[in-house]
Structure formats: structure tokens, C-alpha cells
Write a structure and sequence with these properties.
This protein has two helices and no strands. The chain is an all-alpha fold. It has one domain (2-79).
């Protein structure tokens, strides 16, 4: 009888432990996501402030990135 109870209880215990581990991982992931959202918000504000303070530099940088991206895309499409 003792073996039967142990045979039944061990898998249940493992399931409970796995569930507890998953809940812990979920909380860690949730905290990391919240932290990243805060950092992203801060970066967004900093970028917005920079663009407001330096509109010409920001426009030229965006234009340069667009030209570079277009050149790379064009080169990739020509190789096909």
C-alpha cells in the first residue's frame, strides 16, 4: 500500500514543483518586460528631446539612414 501511495504522490509532487517553477519564471519574465518597457520609455523621451533640440541634425541623420537602407536594398535586389 505504501508503494502505491508513493507511486501516485511522486508524479503529483513533480507536477506541483514544475508549476511553481513556471510561475517563478513567469514572474521573472514579467519583471524583465516591465524593466525593458521603462527603459524604452526613457529612450523614447530622450530621442524626442534630442529631435526637438536638434531638428536639422535629426532630419539629416534620418535622410542618411534612408539613403543607406535604400542602397543596401537596391544592391540586394539587383543580385537576384
Amino acid at each position: 500500500m505504501h508503494f502505491t501511495i508513493r507511486f501516485i504522490n511522486e508524479p503529483l509532487l513533480r507536477i506541483k514543483m514544475a508549476k511553481k517553477n513556471e510561475e517563478g519564471r513567469y514572474e521573472q519574465l514579467k519583471q524583465k518586460i516591465e524593466s525593458l518597457n521603462e527603459k524604452f520609455g526613457e529612450l523614447r523621451v530622450q530621442a524626442s528631446d534630442y529631435v526637438s533640440e536638434h531638428p536639422a541634425k535629426s532630419t539629416l541623420a534620418a535622410f542618411g539612414i534612408g539613403v543607406l537602407a535604400g542602397a543596401v536594398l537596391s544592391a540586394l535586389l539587383r543580385k537576384r
